[in-house]
Amino acid sequence: MIDLYGMSSPNVVKIILMLEEIGTPYRFHPIEVWRKEQFGEAFRALNPNSKVPVIVDQDGPGGEPYTVFESGAILTYLAEKTGQLLPAAGRARYDVLQWLTLQLTGLGPMFGQYVHFTRFEPNASDYARSRYTTEAVRLIDVLNERLTHVPYLGGDAYSIADVATYPWIARLEALKLPVDGRDALLRWRDTVANRPAATRTALRTIEIQQAGDASRAAATADDLDRMFGRGRYAHQAS
Ligand SMILES: N[C@@H](CCC(=O)N[C@@H](CS)C(=O)NCC(=O)O)C(=O)O
Hints:
The chain has helices at residues 10-22, 41-44, 71-82, 90-120, 126-147, 160-169, 183-193, 196-217, 221-228; strands spanning 2-6, 26-30, 54-57, 66-69.
């Protein structure tokens, strides 16, 4: 049994999709991220970096419970534990790891900044908006180009690189990012969306989002400042 701590954001949806794909039973525990719960002592005992997702595998290595944070580490852990969605060795494995890492270090953080500066920046600056929009679109085009040559990001087979990337690409229109002309990316997105695990994940995500709406709506200005590191929580460079 896996305990998953999270919300309805793409970094957590990756893990739901993975758990649905590998068929491992899990329990979902909502974390009130908009109300500072990630900074509390109980959550920091799970992840000292104060971010979701986190899993606790009740049947971890040696039969003992084991905690994993960082979505890339979680996907790798679950793939290796079950022998699914990550080739065991060779070029195919490194192909998957490259495209997984691009999601973790490129697409995820850059889309995150794009969302921040287009939705949450109090005094919006054209410079930041343009910088992160440009980088988000550039990354979309990198994926589209890759998918004109291979059916899946890692190559011939569906893998954790696809699982990590799909929840962000599923939201392109909602994020007001361009899809026109990105035919290979859209073909890949449809293929993943039609997987039964992705259908189950979409339904589960809606439930989680609806259950979290009240908590999000109750966020105070101070809660938002804490989450975004601004106001009385901002640090200055020396
Ligand atoms: N690199 C981390 C990023 C996790 C992350 O940014 N989580 C967001 C939700 S998608 C979060 O916990 N935000 C709350 C905060 O930053 O205080 C991962 O891939 O797991």
